[in-house]
Amino acid sequence: MTFKLKNIAVATLMLLCGASYVNAVETVASPDGNVVVSFDMKEGRPVYSVTYKGGPVVAESRLGLLLDSENGRNDFSSFSYNASEANKLSLAEGFELSSVERSTFDETWTPVWGEETSIRNNYNELAATITQPAFDRHIIIRFRVYNEGLGFRYEFPRQKNLNYMVIKEECSQFAMTGDHYAYWIPGDYDTQEYDYEKSRLSEIRGKMAGAMRDNASTTTFSETGVQTSLLLKTDDNIFINIHEAACVDYATMHLNLDDENFVFESWLTPDNQGKKGYLQSPCESPWRTIIVSDDARDILASRMILNLNEPCKIEDTSWIRPVKYIGVWWDMITGKGSWNYTDDVYSVQLGKTDYSQTTPNGKHSANTENVKRYIDFAAEHGFDQVLVEGWNEGWEDWFGQSKDYVFDFVTPYPDFDLVALNAYAKEKGVKLMMHHETSSSVRNYERHLDRAYQFMVDNGYNAVKSGYVGNIIPRGEYHYSQWMNNHYLYCVTKAAEYKIMVNAHEATRPTGLCRTYPNLLANESARGTEYQAMGGSRMSHTSILPFTRLLGGPMDYTPGIFEMDITKLNPNNTSNIKSTICGQLALYVTMYSPLQMAADLPENYERFMDAFQFIKDVPVEWERSVYLEAEPMEYVTIARKDKNSDNWYVGGTAGETAHEAVITFDFLEPGTKYEATIYADAKDANSTDNQQAYTITTKKVTSKTKLKLKAVAGGGFAISIKKI
């Protein structure tokens, strides 16, 4: 990578000779001056507020943390003061401002993959050191202010009176200025796989029970608790997004809402003892992020969360490549096929089963002949890899049994000829993608991890989809606790040692760590396409994910379903997908990922090869992205330029109501003629019973062309643009 760095310290004010710092409000503005953060001390408590273009966005909000003294883990042994235990445990009051440091930073960096080939990282910074005289300890609250918002975090320098810490709770507040609209999903320690709700802040409590019921949730921590990334919209059409960046060695943050005063406060995911985190100085928290704009397109265009992460730590990234793949998956999700080889769970025991004494169920999808069929299809149509789930022993009783030793990740079923299939794929110019379902037995996965990764290297695999379905083992842990976040990152860094790319499902929601570890190609971490075979998702779902889940990193959404009537695959599954073929095509542009799947069965694509051509053509890495139209839950229209050619691609999705997009092609090179192939919902198409009606037309376009296209509710359009 090539970096251009400019780091200028512009002022440093420090405590001198033990005198008190003159208490005054400290401000720091974005480079363009639109975002201003004010920091102050109020009766010993640190507070901040934010304005955007002169108007309040975040009202005065408190900062700090509370510590937990149980088990003697916090280091107070050196204190010789008469202070109450409660005061000792508070890192939210009793402070004085000691010093302020200011700096400016401006760089342009090159991502290994992404939505553009260069990203500018430009911010103004204020770092406030605050001291608790009663306990002779200090922390730093650091603000970085960008044109699109800000991030702040807590830093704990090495010091004798603040060494080992157990977090009881982080007390970061985000005080809203009114009863805004919120686009939210319920707070949950174990799943993010919800449909989004839109409501006023004052309505969240009333709608929570319905949201939980409709989404078959596991648990929530509060009647007003929501997950990040949280999008808000004011009555003045200001968009605010609250999330976090660089969540390392720390628990995932949720938000608890005081719905009388409209104040959100951080709520960290606990461990199985109810503790929120274990720290040793020097260390720091993740960044708490606020993106703000009066144009919804700016939310989509923000790279602030990536910028708040550390630069790439992998020296040689030549082996990290975006992937377009197909997979033996959808027939199992729909119930047409099966992951397990036999239904005889009583006689199956990992590593000890004599399969000659069992009866194959006849539905096992990951069999040699079926996988060859997928390899042939991938080779014919230019796909890089074929994902095969259910290839390995253990699926008969993998779920719900709380088994510790459940998979070994190296032993195939008897009808899966791993060696022959890898040789066959290599001959066809295709790779197989590994699948590691851990069933959330994390101890078992770490037990086998080195052997499993070496097995991949020995057999020519360079990418793995991992899964964490079910309750975590060690029992009582949650999916988003500090311990689990450390596990996910451990797997990614260990994979890098073996030059393996990772796609983690059911893992924690991304916070931009793909900048630091670009072999983390994607996560699921939201309600994906699989739910379309399990009752469905709302038509607005794919028009809100770009504003929320995708801000932290790419998603393996698995789009591209062409057969919407699932009964045609499995008569016992009555799901009917509320989308259209063109709505599915659009997702390859609007739902950015360097890991894109064509998720349907080959035979379903063969019925619509003219529409399938767009999936074949659309790239998975981009030079430039232009956000043409956007309104959360209603519509998203994005244009992207291919990284490796002069071609452009446009995708547009609609939510619960139809949308007529007006596309101006001024992103094209002036004075150049192009041919646009337009894939659009037919006039009589709908997302209920006529999802496969579409038109394909061609049109000459230039940078001066304007085009109107209608997407039906739940549908969309896609455009391929090539130079003439």
Q: What fraction strand?
A: 25-35%
Name the overall outline.
globular
Show unreliable segments: 1-21, 76-83
Q: Quickly count the helices.
A: 12
Radius of gyration: 26 Å
Please give the alpha-carbon distance between the first and last residues.
Answer: 33 Å
Would you kindly provide a written description of the structure presented here, covering whatever features stand out?
- The chain has 724 residues and is of the alpha+beta class.
- The chain has a domain at 4-307: Distorted Sandwich (Beta-galactosidase, Chain A, domain 5).
- The strands form six sheets. Strands 1, 8, 9, 10, 11, 14, 15, 17, 18, 22 and 23 form an eleven-stranded antiparallel β-sheet that branches. The protein has an eight-stranded antiparallel β-sheet with strand order 2-3-4-5-13-20-19-16, with no helix packed on it.
- A hairpin with a 5-residue loop joins β2 and β3 (35-42).
- It is globular, with a radius of gyration of 26 Å.
- Mean pLDDT is 94; it is low at 1-21 and 76-83.
